[in-house]
Amino acid sequence: MKKISIVLAVAALVVVGIGIGLYIPKLYETNEAIPPQNTQTQTIPNQNNNPTSTPKDENPVVEPQTQTPENKEQTVIGKSVEGRDITAYHFGTGEKEILFVGGIHGGYAWNTALLAYQVMDYLKANPSVIPGSIKVTVIPVLNPDGLNKVVSVTGRFSATDVSSSPAAKVSGRFNDHTVDINRNFDCGWKATGTWQNKTVSGGTAPFSEPESAAIRDYAQAHKLTAVIAWYSSGGGVYSSSCGNGILPETQTITDIYAKASGYQAYKNFESYQVSGDMTDWFAKNSVPAIGVLLSTDNNVEWDKNVAGIKALFEHYAQ
What we know:
Elements: H1 2-33, E1 74-79, E2 85-91, E3 96-101, H2 110-125, E4 134-139, H3 144-148, H4 166-171, E5 192-195, E6 198-201, H5 210-221, E7 224-232, E8 236-239, H6 248-261, E9 265-266, H7 278-284, E10 289-294, H8 302-316
Parallel strand pairs: 3-4, 3-7, 7-10, 8-9
Antiparallel strand pairs: 1-2, 2-4, 5-6, 8-10
């Protein structure tokens, strides 16, 4: 019996050994047949059957950025308190830029804005009057909120669009913060200024108002040759200064405009003390500037002013 048990045990070991020998080769064959897993994410094509991701180019082509072309005929230089555009219109392409400004006192001096619009029409219809060395910029309405209190239309208007209410005209002198724009510039600025025999607001600080800040920013971004501001009324051409005397070129263009137009030339405005004046601020920054006061508050005095403008063109064409 003992011999039989030994024989059976040996037979069992032989059988197990044969089985293991047959199994191991198949195991290696099975491992070789399993492909390695792909660890990269598949690209999902878009609707044009193009992959949503592309290989990185060592020298990618940079497309030039497309910029909106500048409108060389006009520039919105700022907004009024009520959000109306303050627009500058450009004529000519010369290097000497002459700036004309109307409507500083809005509806109170509506005729200065109307004069500015008529100058624009004249320059557009007669471009040859502008010498090649000159660029003319016209801001017809620096105080559009004030003008809106008196004029019933937006933009260009005629005398028939103007309210006959004296109270409306006085109110229209100021912006929507009830600030006199021509008392808000940084030359002898005061929080309270004077207009005739009245006390008016000069704002909370120089350039506290968006209208004065708009023309300041434009002036600082451009090299201005001369500035002519129209006011009403009283009649006369006034030089500018800010505690440092009248610039020689300011005196020159004062005399030129006065002689051609027939207005009287004045070195200073002496009817009452003025603080925070725009033309005086230009003088402080060494820019020749004059104030032209129309004789009345209801007439543009076209012949006088076009003669003065032409005389300035002739002067700066040299």
